[in-house]
Design a protein that fits this description.
elongated; 177 residues
Length: 177
């Protein structure tokens, strides 16, 4: 019911219905693709509606789609800093992995979102985690800024091997606190 209303685009009516009625089951109900209302909203990059939904205490913020991709992963991939920050503040696990072994950090690095990389790294995550292609976040990073953030984090956490340091030493950006 709510998904149909969302797809019709009547967000004002949808917000009113959600506010007025206890709709926990409907809010978290998934469609055939494994999306609930907030997953669909975040995929559509409908930031205002996504932020409205996230503040609803009945909504499951740790929800996953059919590939186990989380809200945080979608937000990291799309560069939605505000959503990543909010989800982390509400205790969503930033180290969750989807069925392909990807994490929010991998998505943020792959899509060159340094602010999101930085906030995820502050959560003491495993920056060396490898996905199904045997690649880690550093191997997906394309910009010198993101590479510099990762290098600084790995040095700080004592995770920087000699071979990894050589690989990153040609990075033009040196992150300094």
């Amino acid at each position: 019911m709510l998904m149909v209303a969302y797809e019709c685009g009547n967000l004002d009516l949808l917000e009113t219905v959600i506010r007025e009625y206890s709709l926990q089951k409907a809010l978290n109900q998934k469609n055939k693709r494994g999306d609930n209302l907030i997953l669909r909203s975040i995929k559509d990059q409908n930031e205002d509606f996504t932020h409205f939904l996230m503040t609803n205490p009945q909504l499951e913020l740790n929800c996953k789609d059919e590939t186990n991709k989380t809200l945080l992963m979608y937000a990291a991939e799309l560069g939605d800093y505000k959503t990543v920050e909010y989800l982390i503040s509400k205790g969503v696990n930033p180290d969750s992995i989807d069925k392909y072994g990807r994490t929010g950090l991998i998505f943020a690095c792959k899509n060159d979102h340094p602010l999101i990389v930085e906030i995820i790294l502050k959560q003491n995550i495993n920056a060396l985690w490898k996905d199904y292609l045997n690649k880690n976040a550093k191997q997906y990073a394309s910009s010198d800024l993101v590479k510099g953030l990762l290098k600084h984090y790995m040095i700080e956490k004592n995770q920087l091997s000699e071979s990894l340091n050589k690989e990153l030493e040609h990075t033009n950006y040196n992150y300094k606190k």
